[in-house]
Automatic annotation (TrEMBL):
Keyword Kinase: yes
Gene3D superfamilies tied to this protein: 3.40.1190.20
Species the sequence originates in: marine sediment metagenome
GO molecular function, one term: kinase activity
Matching Pfam families: PfkB (PF00294)
Gene Ontology CC terms: cytosol
Record protein name field: Carbohydrate kinase PfkB domain-containing protein
Stretches assigned to the Carbohydrate kinase PfkB domain: 1-44
Organism ancestry: unclassified sequences, metagenomes, ecological metagenomes
Keywords of this entry: Kinase, Transferase
Amino acid sequence: GDAFNGALAAALAGGVELSKAVRTALAAGALACTKKGARPSMPTKAAVAGLLRSGG
């Protein structure tokens, strides 16, 4: 939940519309589930953007 919540808060604070912010947060959460550990699992903005571009 940390990656999802952090990405959602950051997107909304940056003025992103709600539906796009939620998609971004979902991508961040999905990427976080692919690695072990709290800090190592936090995805970068570039990784989230890449996943969204790929349609994943």
